[in-house]
Amino acid sequence: MIYKRSSALFAEAEKVIPGGVNSPVRAFNGVGGTPIFVKEAKGAYLYDEDGNRLIDYINSWGPMILGHAHEPVVNAVIEKAKKGTSFGMPTEIETQIAELAVSMVPNIDKIRFVNSGTEACMSAVRLARGFTGKDKIIKFAGCYHGHSDSFLIQAGSGASTFGTPNSPGVTKGTAKDTLLATYNDIENVKALVEANKNEIACVIIEPVAGNMGCIPPTKGFLEALREVCTVNNILLIFDEVMTGFRLAKGGAQELYNIKADIACFGKVIGGGLPVGAFAARNEIMNYLAPIGPVYQAGTLSGNPLAMAAGLAMLTELNNKPEIFTSLAEKTAYLHTGIAKVLTENNITHTINRVGSMISIHFDDAEVVDFNSAAKGNNDTFKAFFHGLLNAGVYIAPSAFETWFITDALSYDDLDFTIAAINTVAKTL
Ligand code: PMP
User: Fold this and answer.
1) 144 lines ligand 1 (CB under 6 A)
2) How far apart are CA 56 and CA 252, in angstroms?
3) What is the residue-wise DSSP string for 107-134?
4) How far is 343 from 148, CA to CA, in rounded Å?
5) Low-confidence stretches of the chain (pLDDT beneath 70)
6) Cβ count within 10 A of residue 356
7) DSSP E strand boundaries for 214-365
8) Residue of 228, 238, 419, 428 with fewest CB within 10 Å of its CB?
9) What's the pLDDT tens digit per position in 57-112?
10) Which atom of ligand 1 lies at the shortest distance from residue 121's CA?
């Protein structure tokens, strides 16, 4: 495929935007080459500035669960935009989407909308600290909760891809309050809790990790984590920015039947507009300003365009719950097909999948935590990435990312993808 115009646009962008991108994960530093510039997208396909069509397995890193430019979402935004784009005053649609979200997600009474997943997680942790009166938090190596200071300690996703899991600029004072645990290792969590008795406000976790590839929780791990938190008066925060409204209507809380104390959302809940949210039971949420002491705010929070997109998206998912089954079936089909062609071509691999999240690791050991995820063969991944790109299949330019399956993908698209992987596998 030819990427002449994309390369020229990137060269221009680099002059005025650091690295030419507004978020590092879009860069191709991890795989080599220059990023593709998108012109437009519809359904399962991206169309780039050179006129190439790509089957999209990133889907804006998760939000486009029903495909690009999904009509009910686009129409809702257009209609709202005609009536003004921001007021900084309450609007009815904020209550409508809040009511719908509260009805879909188990175990939450109130929800507050913000502008990104980062803001949601950052605010959830502040709320947990304010509510418990304790300072320290536990996060897991390889989990990513946005780019707020306390989370850039062994962070996954782009931070790992670019070799900066611990970012300069995060003060020692902040870093010392973030304790680091190993994903899927409950004994490690217990030891940290024991060593920091009565000092830990919350444990924040991706209930299915998606930022070191896809890593499911091992059997009993989330249950044990819930128990440790309850016994020690620690709030359990599920970062459902990826999993929320994707794995089930009620996200991972519903899928695994575990009650978190606070749930964070982003991506799907905004239908492709900049939205995040955090939610909990009344007792916790009433700790927030203006009725409680924990401050949190936003000029554009609950923005009417964002709420219109989110409401249209959640309404679709709520009215058609069969979408979640369809997504899981398509992902399972892809899993089986990819495993078959990689095995036939003697490519060492492990595939992890939960619902419509899937990732391929080029290593045959089980991938259960950040260390095992980091063992994947990155040279194989780079060749795999570029081979697929040439064939018109776009996956994330990093081995630490999950593929997000959209319901707009047809079985023909999946067969095309599996055939492309078969061809690429012969070259690896
Ligand atoms: N939490 C998780 C689990 C995420 O995957 C992400 C982003 N990929 C975030 C938080 C941060 O969200 P945002 O990029 O919208 O700030």
Assistant:
1) yes
2) 24
3) T-SEEEEESSHHHHHHHHHHHHHHHHT-
4) 41
5) 160-165
6) 28
7) 235-239, 262-265, 276-280, 350-354, 357-361
8) 419
9) 999 999 999 999 999 999 999 999 999 999 999 999 999 999 999 999 999 999 99
10) 10
Q: Residue 402: CB within 6 Å of ligand 1? A: no
**φ, ψ at 346 (rounded to 5°):** 55, 35
Atom of ligand 1 nearest to the CA of 243: 3
What is the secondary structure of 301-343 as a DSSP string?
Answer: TT-HHHHHHHHHHHHHHHH-THHHHHHHHHHHHHHHHHHHHHH
- The domain limits of the chain are 4-69+321-425, 71-319
Token representation of residue 191? 């030891």
144 is catalytic: yes
Select 71-319's CATH number: 3.40.640.10, 3.10.129.10, 2.40.50.140, 3.40.190.10: 3.40.640.10
- pLDDT, one tens digit per residue, over 254-294 is 999 999 999 999 999 999 999 999 999 999 999 999 999 99
Q: Kindly report the number of other CB atoms within 10 A of residue 59's CB atom.
A: 26
User: Length of the chain in residues, anyone?
Assistant: 428
pLDDT digits (tens, 9 = 90+) for 38-54: 999 999 999 999 999 99
214, 242, 243: which to mutate for ligand 1, most atoms within 8 A of CB? 242
324 lines ligand 1 (CB under 6 A): no
Q: Is the ipTM of this complex over 0.95?
A: yes
Burial string for 315-350 (b: 16+ CB within 10 Å, else e) reads bbbeeeeebbeebbebbebbeebbbebbeebebebb
Distance of alpha carbon 289 from alpha carbon 296, whole angstroms = 7
